[in-house]
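task queued by scheduler; priority normal; single chain, no ligands, no partner chains; default sampling; output format set to structure tokens
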Amino acid sequence: MSASVDAALPHVVIIEPGRQERNYWGDLWRYRELFRVLAWRDLAVRYKQTAIGLAWALVRPFLTMLVFTVIFGRIARLPTEGDAPYALMVFAGMLPWTFFSTGLAEASNSLINNANLISKVYFPRLIVPTATLVVAFVDFLVSFAIMIAMMAWYRFVPDWRILFLPVFVALAFLASIGPALWITALNVKYRDFRYVIPFMVQFGLYVSPVGFSSSVVPQGWRLLYSLNPVVGVIDGFRWCLLGGRSELYLPGLAVSVGVTAFFLWFGVRRFRKTEKSFADLI
């Protein structure tokens, strides 16, 4: 009799004081199906009823690359990474930047966009902003296809450093989710942040080494410049994709990794601290 009851009720939720806190991280795994549903929904909604659909992920970074190549490469005549074509250097920087900025923008507004769901049922709210990063990752994969085509056009073959690219993709994910969780929590309470986020993303595009090499930054300022966590990610992408033409500034990378780790810790901490009030504020 006991075995039949256990088979009929494979998962029993016990409601008791403090249980939610103790089992929060385990609940993230138990609600993995919800993560898949939200990620697929966000992906479908993003390109629903658009004229060219997924091609937007191709058009935006490609046009930005053309503008930066003309302005910084042809007009300003800034140096490239070694002898790599300037367009390749720019697009290698566009890949992590697009991933970072799209993930930050989408995740920051995710709780507001899912207000009805959050106010009705319990689940770990951390699932919502994390699921939106799937959209950014799909955009990244589409843009990476352009990178492969451009490398074929320029007959540019990467070396063994390409094997480290997944490491920097993971670093780009962490650099995005940390600030996104913090801004998401603030956005629930202070709706003004919905107007601040686009400005931050636009401003970050020009202060990050997307359209130029970070080697143009004076040596005495490079460590300070690396406090921008995206700097280490972009330099890492170029090091992986451009091979020996690009040098990896290890002290700056260490600083960027440290800042990324801090924002990840701080973002999760602030998100968890304010999570209980989301249903009331939203």
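post-processing summary
- Residues 1-9 have pLDDT under 50 and may be disordered.
- The two ends are 46 Å apart (CA to CA).
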